[in-house]
């Protein structure tokens, strides 16, 4: 099993208010799955994704990622896991506006000390995989929203992660462009057997997942298969 969450709870204390963002989540995800996490605003979707992505730790419960017990790891070990295993895609694309698509995709590899030549080759291959080979030299503002999101997906792919985590990746796109991004995720999942976990509040987007986890008030309400 790639991911195992056991009775995961996440509490936030702000002033006198204690918010139970996650209230006992049990979830297992196998390698190669395409999972959608669906639920209304404030239900705990991003909190859950951030814990899966080792950006945050549970208040209580157990999280085992690829056989490693995450709560025992220190900050350096967590950032190593993020860099080596996990590609993130967000609603807003988080590209650097002053650099072209190619360089934006190379960035994760710079942090890993990979040579300039290998960086360029791998970034080109990742941009080709998302259908953007012809736009490599364009800066983000010279690309459409859907193309910018493809660059962000290429940047997540370039480090050959075990897992892609996407939080509302189509939230800033019109529905046609959103659908094409979801089709890209489907293709990557099928062709590369890449594990994808996607958060959305849009039922139409959740339909692309092979399994849908419905979350409400920090708890899993139901799990359905598409
Ligand atoms: N850093 C924080 N401090 C305090 N409360 C927080 C924090 N982050 C999230 N929460 C609360 O935890 C709950 C779950 O938030 P979360 O961001 O996971 O929801 P979400 O399902 O992603 O919502 P949305 O669809 O609006 O993005 C909410 O009630 C939110 O107010
Ligand atoms: Mg959210």
TrEMBL record:
PROSITE patterns according to UniProt: ABC_TRANSPORTER_1, ABC_TRANSPORTER_2
Alphabetical keyword list: ATP-binding, Hydrolase, Nucleotide-binding, Transport
Positions of the ABC transporter domain: 3-225
PANTHER family per UniProt: ABC TRANSPORTER ABCH.1, IMPORT ATP-BINDING PROTEIN
Gene: yknY
Protein name listed in UniProt: Putative ABC transporter ATP-binding protein YknY
Any single Gene Ontology cellular-component annotation: plasma membrane
Pfam family, one: ABC_tran
């Amino acid at each position: 099993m790639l991911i195992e969450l056991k009775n995961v709870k996440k509490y936030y204390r702000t002033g006198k208010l204690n918010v139970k963002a996650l209230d006992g989540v049990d979830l297992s995800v196998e390698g190669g799955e395409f999972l959608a996490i669906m639920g209304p605003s404030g239900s705990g979707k991003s909190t859950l994704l951030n814990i899966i992505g080792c950006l945050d730790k549970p208040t209580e419960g157990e999280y085992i990622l690829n056989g490693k017990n995450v709560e025992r790891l220190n900050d350096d070990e967590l950032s190593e896991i993020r860099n080596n295993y996990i590609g993130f895609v967000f609603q807003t694309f988080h590209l650097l506006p002053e650099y072209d698509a190619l360089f934006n995709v190379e960035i994760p590899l710079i942090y890993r000390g990979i040579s300039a030549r290998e960086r360029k080759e791998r970034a080109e291959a990742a941009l080709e995989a998302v259908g953007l080979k012809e736009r490599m030299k364009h800066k983000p503002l010279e690309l459409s929203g859907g193309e910018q999101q493809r660059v962000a997906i290429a940047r997540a792919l370039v480090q050959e992660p075990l897992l892609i985590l996407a939080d509302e990746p189509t939230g800033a796109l019109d529905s046609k462009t959103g659908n094409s991004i979801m089709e890209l995720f489907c293709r990557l999942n099928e062709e590369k057997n890449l594990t994808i976990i996607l958060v959305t509040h849009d039922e139409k987007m959740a339909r692309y997942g092979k399994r849908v986890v419905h979350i409400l008030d920090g708890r899993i309400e139901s799990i359905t298969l598409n």
